[in-house]
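User: quick one - fold this with pyridoxal-5'-phosphate bound?
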Amino acid sequence: MTAIPQERRVVTAIPGPKSQELQARRTATVAGGVGSVLPVFTARAGGGIVEDVDGNRLIDFGSGIAVTSVGASAEAVVRRASAQLADFTHTCFMVTPYEGYVEVCEALAELTPGDHAKKSALFNSGAEAVENAVKVARSYTGRQAVVVFDHGYHGRTNLTMALTAKNMPYKHGFGPFAPEVYRVPVAYGYRWPTGAENAGAEASAQAIDMISKQVGAENVAAIIIEPVLGEGGFIEPAKGFLPAIAEFARENGIVFVADEIQSGFCRTGQWFACEDEGVVPDLITTAKGIAGGLPLAAVTGRAEIMDAVHSGGLGGTYGGNPVACAGALGSIETMKELDLNAKARRIEEVMKGRLAAMQEKYPAIGDIRGRGAMIAIELVKDPATKEPDAAAAGALAKACHAEGLLVLTCGTYGNVLRFLPPLVIGEDLLNEGLDIIEQAFAGI
Ligand SMILES: *Cc1c(COP(=O)(O)O)cnc(C)c1O
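Assistant: Sure. Structure tokens for the protein plus pyridoxal-5'-phosphate:
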């Protein structure tokens, strides 16, 4: 394997001619419902760089949506997954088990918050993990209702569409959705009517009141929340919100589920984002960053809750595939060896410093938020009215792409530019990416 030079290089228009050719073939054969942020076809990727088929090298501020935290061709991931591929690709853990699956569950028990006895089950995608967390919680409590939050995102399967807040593009035209799902407010500090300082206490009181009065706490199997909301706009629930909701769940026998699919595995500068406020979830769902790009997901939690399900009640043909498990072990090894939590915190320091300076010049930046290498800016037409400016987010993303910087947007109002660099990105590339963002502001 040749390491990819960690240098931005733009040698054609973006997308270039080879990408455009491939895009034409793609349009003819790939379903139109599957979108792409940037139709640049990938040749190879690693570190902080994605290289396309035209020889352009893009700075990666996306990590394939918070997946390749260790890089897209991390040495330990490639080594371990390749060795596993040569040994065997699949037996199905439900037919004849293998050690890698057990090792991943041991690592999850060690790394997730809380020192209680824990067990895990492995799956293929984040949505599948969330679905299974709901199955486990219902089985354990004998209750049906599931509570989720404004701006929440939990996946694209039928149940997880119901759990997801935003209609377009995730839910539009795809109903009917699963029943017994209830949505309550979240402490979105920037947009909380009485100010960010009141958001934690007021939003948690409102949420708890709605759950108690409209659903009935005794009917609720699970409360599911992202400790930092991802697709909804990198919203960090205001201080006090998560602990209040977790406490309410504990008092009422409700399974508290932290969906750390995007925020977990060093992304926010901790193994898991809920550690910031000392919240210990009953169940935690993980995916994305867990396996360096290989498809793997997990539900981890209190042993007595996980074991409430009858034997054979959890599983799936490919869940915890041996190659994906090997990838996860390589990814976790890399995170520990390179102390990627510290790297994520350093990325936050650099990014927030630079973005704060940009905000002084460009008032369209209404809010700078996020933790670790999960940082976003919310764009507004006027900082006084906070009217969302989705067009600005789109124009900035486009300008960055043209210069060879891969950035993503998100947010309920589509007005958030989010930055998710691989945690292994070099600081020079990080700063060069920020230079491009600054130039993009000057140009819009
Ligand atoms: C991406 C995501 C999911 C869904 O994961 P998939 O692997 O795409 O099914 C669920 N929850 C959160 C918080 C996510 O960011």
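One thing worth noting: The chain has two domains: 17-73+340-443, 76-337.
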